[in-house]
Design a protein that fits this description.
By secondary structure, the chain is α+β, with helices and mostly antiparallel strands. It folds into 3 domains: about 60 residues; about 60 residues, Double Stranded RNA Binding Domain (2-Layer Sandwich), CATH 3.30.160.20; about 110 residues, Ribosomal Protein S5, domain 2, CATH 3.30.230. Helix content is about 50%, strand content about 25%. A 4-stranded antiparallel sheet has the order 1-2-3-4. The chain is elongated, with a radius of gyration of 33 Å.
């Protein structure tokens, strides 16, 4: 009986060792593969994150942008299991020196929607010429859908006479004196689009003089002002 037990034990031992080696081998293979995968993923992600971080730092160091949240709307989508709720954000971005843009984004959470809207607004920024760096050069009208807006230049000390979404646009643009009026819809999306339609029609005496091949003083002197006054006004004009 003792011999049979030893024989059985000896016969069973190599099987366990072989199985152990196979298990160890498989474990090593998985471990190596897992390490390679982890290294590759970590390396790739790390590089991408570094690149994104560099771009963001360059943008942040180059200019400081003014971000204003105009409107947040909760939206829902009906699916088989019920309703899925999300959020839509409308953001206006500007540098306070004559550049402004707007964008909107949708996501399941509010911060993600704001981030998407901000990124979209930065891509669609436009430049608007300003008079003395504080107001518009001339009056204008804008329209989008059922929304109509009127914008007028104003003397120093007037302030921003605008409400709702239009105020956010002019504050981000860097305008300090302006008078506006919105007629028609109160939808913030259409109001902002109508405001941008009016701002894109703005022109400065400098751009008109370049287009016509003349001097700014010649254009300003046609209103009855003297040559000295026209030259002084031309020097005071800033984009």
């Amino acid at each position: 009986m003792a011999d049979e037990t030893n024989l059985q034990g000896d016969a069973a031992a190599p099987v366990e060792q072989t199985g152990g080696e196979q298990r160890e081998g498989r474990g090593r293979g998985r471990g190596r593969g897992g390490e390679r995968g982890e290294r590759g993923e970590r390396g790739g992600r790390g590089r991408r994150d570094d690149r994104r971080g560099r771009n963001n730092n360059d943008e942040d160091q180059g200019e400081e942008l003014i971000e204003k949240l105009v409107h947040i709307n909760r939206v829902s989508k009906t699916v088989k299991g019920g309703k899925r709720f999300g959020f839509a954000a409308l953001v206006v971005v500007g540098d306070g020196k004559g550049r402004v843009g707007f964008g909107h984004g949708k996501a399941r959470e509010v911060p993600e929607a704001i981030t998407k809207a901000t990124a979209s607004a930065k891509k669609k920024m436009v430049r608007v010429p300003l008079k003395e760096g504080r107001t518009l050069h001339h009056d204008g009208k804008g329209r989008f859908g059922a929304g109509k807006v009127n914008v007028r230049s104003a003397p120093a000390g007037t302030g921003i006479i605008a409400g709702g979404p239009m105020r956010a646009v002019f504050e981000s643009l860097g305008v300090h004196d302006v008078v506006t009026k919105s007629v028609g819809t109160s939808n913030p999306y259409n109001m902002i689009r109508a405001t941008f339609d009016a701002l894109q029609d703005q022109t400065s005496p400098k751009s008109v003089a370049q287009r016509r091949g003349k001097k700014v003083a010649d254009l300003l002197g046609r209103g009855g002002a003297s040559q000295v006054e026209a030259e002084a006004a031309a020097e005071a004009i800033a984009e």
